[in-house]
Amino acid sequence: MPDLRSLALGGLVILLIKILQSLLFKRRRSMFSLDSVRPPAPHVADRKLRAKVLKQSFSPEKVPHGLDAIVIGSGIGGLSAAALLAKAGKKVLVLEQNDQAGGCCHTFIEKGYEFDVGIHSVGEFGRTGLSRTLLDQLTDGQLEFVPIDPVYDVLKLRYLSEKSASYDFCSPKERWISTLKKQFPGEEEAVDKFIRYIEESTSFIFVFGVVKFLPLWLSKLVIKLGIIDWFTPYSKWASRSAQSVVEELTDNEDLRTAFTYLWAIAGVIPSDVSFNVMALLHHHYYGGSYYPRGGASEIPFHIIPVIEKSGGKVLVNANVKKIVLDESASRAVGVVVEKDSKSFKIAAPIIISNANVTVTLTKLLPEKVGKRAIQYPVLSRVRPSVPCMEIFLGLNASNEELKLSAQNYTCVMDNNIEELYRKYRRMPIEEALNAEPPVIYLAFPSAKDPTHDQRHPGKATCTIIGPAEYEWFRPWENESFLHRNDRYEEIKKTIGHRLIEQACKLFPQIRDKIDLVVIRSPLSHNHYLGRTTGDIYGLYGDIERFKLETQALLRPETGIEGLFLSGQDVMTSSLLGAAIGGVFCASKILNRNLMNELNGLMKEAEKRENRSSPARRMPIEEALNAEPPVIYLAFPSAKDPTHDQRHPGKATCTIIGPAEYEWFRPWENESFLHRNDRYEEIKKTIGHRLIEQACKLFPQIRDNIDLVVIRSPLSHNHYLGRTTGDIYGLYGDIERFKLETQALLRPETGIEGLFLSGQDVMTSSLLGAAIGGVFCASKILNRNHMSELDGLMKEAEKRENRTWPSPAR
Ligand SMILES: Cc1cc2nc3c(=O)[nH]c(=O)nc-3n(C[C@H](O)[C@H](O)[C@H](O)COP(=O)(O)OP(=O)(O)OC[C@H]3O[C@@H](n4cnc5c(N)ncnc54)[C@H](O)[C@@H]3O)c2cc1C
Fold it and tell me: Is 354 in the pocket of ligand 1 (CB under 6 A)?
């Protein structure tokens, strides 16, 4: 809990920011709208149709006329900036050097196996949060994220030794904390303190965004005077390494490693990474870990149409060789694209570079101009992030056969991992070829994507990431990737196969199923992601990078008129960080605070969601641990006078409880007989919570339960022909019963010969649906059956009164 002083000071900072915002940005109606979010269309699996969006190859004729902006690079950072400009009506051209769009979000298919290269899981997608709100706007709601296993990360410690230990990290936060405490008995105080530190250090993390928004001179002044440090503990946590904090918390070495295991994902060792970045990573996964439904390429696939709607284009095989400047070299006015040894000059008043900051300032601009950029001093303070080996395995068996889980595994050789990692990377290549890589990160993406088994039946995939040193591969950096010699292949394969061997020791069931091996070296990252030192994350995320002084420089505007930066270097290395880099960039260009607009939208979405159903939208892992807030219960056997005769000695109970369709959507296309263990687990856990509530209300039934049948929303799809588990047809809200709506909900459809009947035509109930049938037949027979029934009713009443005079009479 932050103390009162920090709260008051925090409030003051927010007030100041609001005043500055109103001075800096024009007040306008929000560019975003919840109404642009449409329900996701069915997944497009056809490779030709996908290529039409993702692989539009560059040719000068395809360049639209009258461009408002050019974006160099089609990573999420470039695409988000482009889509936001497009939403403001701008015509934007995105140029990508690779043969397909997406940057780290691209996927590739080989021998029928599909692999994504740079997204394993992302957080903050459970409830209406910033991630979902932003991605919904960027894709008009077409992108879906599905939760992976509630135990989203597993740390395998001393994984090659007999003293191995395994630690689970799970969501929601409360379960994460209790699991950690259970795994480390006696360390409860250290765990509690760690959580407190996470809360404190992340509560003011937004200030690193503020110093980018303010004009540079003002940021510098505020930082120099230490004003932010009076108000917030940002610098306190940003200047301390994660390692130094955890060393203070506990002597238990396994727990220290567990507190900092996310370093392997961030690519920054615990002594280098600031505590607040480590805290931010833990915080990011509090609500669980998610994966893009249909794979990572769904991200560019659904953003590109939004860019095209305003006349823009995303063209690939378009290597930007340089940024063109005006005569005085003070303004960016275009780019030069090189393709098939030809150069093409394209002009636009705004140029955004999503290629990383090092490439932009040292390769795409003349040296003198690059040095003038606001960001240039950062290059001597922060080095590029680390390189790695990436291995993709195609497995010729299904996820189910191989019992693969939708989890990520971080495997470290021992608690002195930093020492081992540094030593490994410093090794000369001959030594490295004979050494065991001391850390591997491993996942089975096929198990995370609910559409995978349908798209690639009988197949599964595994991705392994291991450490590497760029120097081992530097001799071939200037050779085309098809013409590197045998020695390069030998190095790549030897290191790659060591990592595969380790993976097979960890998961022996995959050994005999390996059908395809693709090994990528740091040079592959140069090739596919336009890097220069095999770096996977742009700038290295160390303490220096997250100092306020550095953050103030890592901003979208470059100081060179017309030239802006977007993506992970402007913000943080992650899908969300790079996308927000795009938001910051578009904000600067459009001179509006899009973060504020998104925040407003997020609140509106939250309100709408709460209004439509307060119990909805809890992520599944949270729901599995929550009490359903309402149940409906009845004993039908007691209502039917014939029951005891027909079923002597038996009674029945029916319970209805709330559910969210998203919890079950991953299995919606699987036959009800072939849904997997996870489906059964979810169905049973929620079902048994409801049964437990019923037993508390009617304790006498507890010991007499002889049969349990649990039906999920998917059972309603199956038995009642629904599509989203809905039980009553259309939702019976105010909108539905407005006269305008009711006038439309009628039997005739306007399509000759086609009529509707049932509950949607009338109301959701037995009588309502039957009257729907009466209305329908009336229309078809062109008679007023309701009137006829009314007449009959009156006649029946009369008859009844005649034969059975009421007792009162
Ligand atoms: C192996 C790996 C695993 C990861 N796992 C996760 C994860 O699980 N969760 C998560 O949130 N994040 C993860 N990340 C990080 C995340 O993917 C990135 O931070 C983010 O996608 C970067 O987006 P970006 O737009 O800044 O850059 P990029 O995606 O790198 O895009 C830059 C684009 O610019 C292009 N380009 C460069 N130079 C030129 C040029 N001269 N001309 C034309 N085009 C050019 C490149 O080809 C590239 O397509 C991972 C990254 C990697 C590499």
Answer: yes
What is the Å distance from ligand 1's center to 75 Cα? Answer: 5
Q: Is the CB of 580 under 6 A from ligand 1?
A: no
Confidence of residue 129 (pLDDT cuts 50, 70, 90): confident
Report how far residue 408's alpha carbon sits from residue 67's, in angstroms, rounded to the nearest whole number.
Answer: 42
Q: Cα(768) to centroid of ligand 1, in Å?
A: 55
With a 6 Å cutoff on the Cβ, whether 122 touches ligand 1 is yes
Of the ranges 198-207, 283-292, 752-761, the best mean pLDDT one:
752-761
326-349, pLDDT tens digit by residue? 999 999 999 999 999 999 999 999
Best substitution site from 104, 291, 442, 566 to test ligand 1's pocket, by max atoms within 8 Å of Cβ? 104
> Is the CB of residue 81 below 6 angstroms from any atom belonging to ligand 1?
no
Q: What is the pLDDT of residues 509-542, one digit of tens each?
A: 999 999 999 999 999 999 999 999 999 899 999 9
How far apart CA 323 and CA 673 sit, in angstroms, is 58
Q: Which of 156-160, 326-330, 478-482 has the lowest mean pLDDT?
A: 478-482
pLDDT value of residue 809: 40
pLDDT digits (tens, 9 = 90+) for 664-709: 988 888 887 778 888 998 999 999 999 999 999 999 999 999 999 9
β strands within 328-384, DSSP E: 332-339, 342-347, 350-353
Q: What is the 3-state secondary structure (H, E, C) of 254-294?
A: HHHHHHHCCHHHHCCCCCCCEHHHHHHHHHHCCCCEEEECC
Per-residue buried b or exposed e for 748-765, using 16+ beta carbons within 10 Å of the residue's own CB: eeeeeeeeebbbbbbbbe
* Three-state SS at 748: strand
Nearest residue (by CA) to ligand 1, atom 16, is 574
Q: Which atom of ligand 1 is nearest to the CA of 581?
A: 26
Task: Check if the beta carbon of residue 494 is closer than 8 Å to that of residue 487.
Answer: no
> What pLDDT, on the 0 to 100 scale, is given for residue 204?
87
* Residue having the nearest C-alpha atom to atom 32 of ligand 1: 75
- Count of CB atoms within 10 A of residue 310's CB? 18
Atom of ligand 1 nearest to the CA of 575: 11
Q: Which atom of ligand 1 is found nearest the CA of 337? A: 42
Torsion of CA 129, 133, 135, 136, to 10 degrees: 130
Smallest CA-to-CA distance from 638 within 655, 625, 651, 657 is with 651
Q: Does the CB atom of residue 100 touch ligand 1 within 6 A?
A: no
In short, whether 292's Cβ falls inside 6 Å of ligand 1 is: no
Q: Which atom of ligand 1 is nearest to the CA of 528?
A: 47
* Whether the Cβ atoms of residue 141 and residue 633 lie closer than 8 Å to each other: no
Backbone angles phi, psi at 153, to 5 degrees: -125, 140
Rounded distance between C-alpha atoms, residue 127 and residue 141, angstroms: 14
The arithmetic mean of pLDDT across residues 302-322, rounded, is: 98
Nearest CA to ligand 1 atom 1: 118
Q: Please tell me the residue having the least CA distance from ligand 1 atom 50.
A: 118
Return the best residue to mutate from 54, 56, 108, 119 for the ligand 1 pocket (most ligand atoms within 8 A of CB).
Answer: 119
Ligand 1 atom with the smallest distance to the CA of 80 is 25
DSSP 557: B
pLDDT digits (tens, 9 = 90+) for 706-731: 999 999 999 999 999 998 998 899 99
Report residue 637 as tokens. Answer: 């056997």
Whether 78 lines ligand 1, by a CB cut-off of 6 Å, is: yes
Domain boundaries, the chain: 388-529, 627-720, 739-803
Q: Would the CB of 274 count as within 6 Å of ligand 1?
A: no
Relative to the CA of 537, which ligand 1 atom is closest?
19
Give the burial string for 675-710 (b: 16+ CB within 10 Å, else e): bbebbeebbeebbebbbebbbeeeeeeeeeeeeeeb
